[in-house]
UniProtKB/TrEMBL annotation, chain A:
<keyword id="KW-0813">Transport</keyword>
<protein>
    <submittedName>
        <fullName>Heme ABC transporter ATP-binding protein</fullName>
    </submittedName>
</protein>
<dbReference type="InterPro" id="IPR027417">
    <property type="entry name" value="P-loop_NTPase"/>
</dbReference>
<keyword id="KW-0067">ATP-binding</keyword>
<dbReference type="InterPro" id="IPR003439">
    <property type="entry name" value="ABC_transporter-like_ATP-bd"/>
</dbReference>
<dbReference type="GO" id="GO:0005524">
    <property type="term" value="F:ATP binding"/>
</dbReference>
<keyword id="KW-1278">Translocase</keyword>
<keyword id="KW-0547">Nucleotide-binding</keyword>
<dbReference type="Pfam" id="PF00005">
    <property type="entry name" value="ABC_tran"/>
</dbReference>
TrEMBL record, chain B:
<dbReference type="Pfam" id="PF01032">
    <property type="entry name" value="FecCD"/>
</dbReference>
<feature type="transmembrane region" description="Helical">
    <location>
        <begin position="201"/>
        <end position="220"/>
    </location>
</feature>
<comment type="similarity">
    <text>Belongs to the binding-protein-dependent transport system permease family. FecCD subfamily.</text>
</comment>
<protein>
    <submittedName>
        <fullName>Iron ABC transporter permease</fullName>
    </submittedName>
</protein>
<keyword id="KW-0813">Transport</keyword>
<keyword id="KW-1003">Cell membrane</keyword>
<keyword id="KW-0812">Transmembrane</keyword>
<feature type="transmembrane region" description="Helical">
    <location>
        <begin position="125"/>
        <end position="146"/>
    </location>
</feature>
<keyword id="KW-1133">Transmembrane helix</keyword>
Length: 268, 346
């Protein structure tokens, strides 16, 4: 269980996050939605212990996140960052194997090799195994890092998976494949937090959506609770029509109008 | 498998280079004598019919010099590999954090002003003055660069890079000033020191350098996994359970000690720390578990060969080893670079 209590982050008098509270239970997938600069990535960095909150705390299974040792935390939570820049010419297999670093000292065990193979297959990068990471396309790179992050937590109980815009460079097939995978992992008891920009995809795969605006939490609830044209306008400043799919009953939005500097542009 | 072949090849070549280095020089020693002497040295059997004259030269001159070359080369190679990893920058090398510039400044000052300023110190340290001074200079310059890079108690790599450039420039200009103030003979000594030489090798210098290099050879490969994770970025390394700040500090301490000690006995030897790790990566990939030991081996090999050439090509005089490393190594490196260009650029 993960509890965020009054999370606040201030840097040089700029408040990036202010008083954020929420709870995630094992088995839940939470999507963070918000405009550019709303504080989503900063919130992820509070949840993965990369940065220490100025005020408030994160309780991870009852203990403050700060009290975990780096290695024990590495076996319980993994983060897929928004940007990746690998500075040396590693192969795909070597990069994915890095996810197993918390589990061995110098040479990988049989188990580690199996896990790496499994996650590479799941993310559809097994055929790229011996390719250099530097030679891949943006979407392929994202899938490799996803495989690495999954390898880090594979077969572990009580996991927290943090995904910061995990599908931003992927084609539509892998976008769905990735989110369906995250959904399946949540169903097996992982906690998943994903920053997403596609509201429709978020509504389709996440249990709950947390809407952020200017570093604060606006709302937190199931897709059909929080997605309405008023909330979307408040956060993104666009007019949308909210539709319910007749068969799946998922909530969808269809943009109608966007406003730029007092001018309005129709979208139909 | 490929890596095993590279290791075997490097070790075999290093053994050949070592034997050649023992045999060749101003005075040629037959290979048979070299082998007999080597066998005896490692205590396999002690009653071999060795020639007194030959074994005297091998023991007092060739072995210290060869070993010094191996140690200096290994120190430069492995430190270069580790420094490039923590800086996440292919252009990084030990010199970047001030090691060589600090050592040069102090060494030049000692050469130019020994009689004026360092007389008392010189009485204590004797002919070690230059080595001790250069080591201290390397340490102080690196410490300054490291201190400047601290932000909220943690070393910031980008700042360290810029601070290194600045301290290098400062030390460089001061060295220039010292050179300007020195006379012809001193200027020649300064220039030769800065081009590097293993000419001053003695068993004492070998044993002084030994612990510093061994510390790096043992300590740095133990951090190979962490340094691999650095390629993903410091935050990612932290997410994988590594402690980036501790790793950065350890790498800088070990690399500075090894390279500082190497520079203090051999002068500045360029090229090796920068290009050897690249050559190693182009041959067998970027995994630091392989790159670091292989860089040490290749560094040792290149330096042994370079020294062999430096002292035999213009017999009876010697040319500076720094000149040879660049002349010998650059074409080889450029060849690999051109061959593998496609792999690097994409």
């Amino acid at each position: 269980m993960l509890v965020a209590e009054n999370l606040t982050y201030t840097i040089k008098k700029h408040t990036i996050l202010k008083g954020i509270n929420f709870v995630i239970q094992p088995g839940e997938m939470l999507a963070l939605l918000g405009a550019n600069g709303a504080g989503k990535s900063t919130l992820i960095k509070m949840l993965n212990a990369e940065q220490i909150p100025s005020d408030g705390k994160v309780l991870f299974f009852g203990s403050d996140l700060k009290s975990y040792s780096p290695v024990s935390l590495a076996k319980m939570r993994a983060t897929m960052a928004q940007h990746h820049h690998v500075s040396a010419d590693f192969t795909v297999a070597e990069i994915v194997m890095m996810g197993r670093y918390p589990y061995y000292t110098h040479n990988p065990k049989e188990e580690d090799l199996i896990v790496v193979r499994e996650t590479m297959c799941l993310c559809g990068v097994d055929h790229l195994e011996q390719r250099s990471i530097l030679s891949l396309s943006g979407g392929e790179k994202q899938r490799v890092h996803l495989a690495r992050v999954l390898a880090q937590l594979w077969k572990q109980p009580n996991c927290l998976l943090l995904l910061d815009e995990p599908i931003s460079a992927m084609d539509i097939r892998f976008q769905h494949q990735t989110l369906a995978l995250a959904r399946a992992l949540a169903d097996r008891g992982w906690m998943v937090v994903a920053v997403l920009h596609d509201i429709n995809l978020a509504a389709q795969y996440a249990d709950r959506l947390l809407l952020m605006k200017n570093g604060r939490k606006l709302m937190d609830g199931t897709p059909c609770e929080v997605i309405n044209s008023r909330n979307i306008y408040t956060i993104f400043g666009i007019d949308v029509e909210v539709v319910t799919h007749p068969e799946t009953l998922h909530t969808y939005i269809v943009p109608k109008m966007v406003h730029v500097n007092g001018l309005s542009f129709g979208m139909i | 498998m490929k890596k095993k072949i590279i290791y075997v090849l490097l070790v075999a070549l290093l053994a050949i280079a070592t034997l050649s280095s023992l045999a060749l020089g101003a005075f040629f020693i037959p290979l048979r004598e070299v082998l007999l002497n080597t066998v005896q040295k490692f205590g396999v059997c002690s009653d071999l019919p060795v020639d007194e004259l030959y074994s005297g030269i091998i023991d007092l001159v060739r072995w210290p010099r060869t070993l010094l070359g191996i140690l200096v080369g290994a120190a430069l190679g492995i430190s270069g590999a580790a420094i490039q990893s923590i800086f996440r920058n292919p252009l990084a090398e030990p010199g970047l954090i001030g090691v060589s510039a600090g050592a040069s400044l102090v060494a030049a000052s000692i050469i130019a002003f020994e009689t004026v300023m360092f007389a008392t110190l010189g009485q204590f340290l004797g002919h070690y003055l230059l080595a001790v001074g250069a080591f201290a200079g390397a340490g102080v310059a690196t410490w300054l660069v490291y201190r400047i890079s601290l932000y909220e108690g943690k070393p910031h790599i980008g700042t360290m890079l810029l601070a290194g450039v600045a301290i290098n420039a400062l030390a460089g200009s001061l060295t220039g000033l010292v050179s300007f103030l020195s006379d012809e003979q001193q200027l020649r000594s300064i220039t030769f020191w800065m081009l590097g030489s293993l000419g001053g090798a003695t068993w004492d210098s070998v044993w002084t350098l030994f612990p510093f290099v061994v510390a790096a050879l043992v300590g740095l490969p133990m951090m190979a996994k962490s340094l691999n994770a650095f390629a993903l970025g410091e935050q990612e390394a932290q997410q994988l359970g590594q402690r980036p700040n501790r790793i950065k500090m350890l790498v800088i301490v070990l690399a500075t000690m090894a390279v500082g000690a190497a520079v203090s006995v051999s002068g500045i030897i360029g090229f090796v720390g920068l290009l050897v790790p690249h050559a190693v990566r182009m041959l067998g990939g970027a995994d630091n578990r392989y790159v670091m030991p292989a860089s040490a081996l290749l560094g040792a090999l290149i330096l042994t060969l370079a020294d062999l050439i430096a002292r035999t090509i213009a017999m009876p005089s010697e040319i500076p080893i720094g000149v040879v490393t660049a002349l010998l190594g650059t074409p080889l490196f450029l060849y690999i670079l051109i061959r593998d260009k496609k792999k690097i650029i994409v």
